[in-house]
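Intended use. Records like the one below are meant for learning the mapping from a protein sequence to its folded structure. Do not use them to infer anything beyond what is encoded.
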Amino acid sequence: MPPKLNVHNFPRPPLLEKTPRHLQIKWNNQLIADTKDAYWALETTHPPTYYLPPDSILLPLTRSSHKSFCEWKGAATYWNVTNPGNGGSQEVKNRIWSYEKPTKGFESIKDYLSFYAGPWDCYVDGEKVEPQPGDFYGGWVTSDIEGPIKGGPGTWGW
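Structure written out for the chain above:
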């Protein structure tokens, strides 16, 4: 079992580094992403946010018009995807994002993709993750993460 990672020991600004962890994303039991070549961003009070290389995504994505801005990584581009398990009738919008021109220090995640932990199932080394509380941040919570996590009610000003 990996050592515990306390989110209050993560740095601010965030640390971006390669992670050897095996990341998988399944939707309706169909594998849609699979890699051991990802990055994770570790930021104070947040569980890790994972960035997967584009070639690890196993279904087509379409660019969304939605945008957001991260004070550390820059302007985010969002992506839409169609559910592979229901005949293509369910499109999920804005639950995947990337940085086409990330800021200094985050250049290595250019075009890498990050997924919110749902509606699909996300796994780290075979463990199904829980989403970071709230619906704003995209961190993945695993059993090795400890400490109060930002995102839920009453944590906005942390």
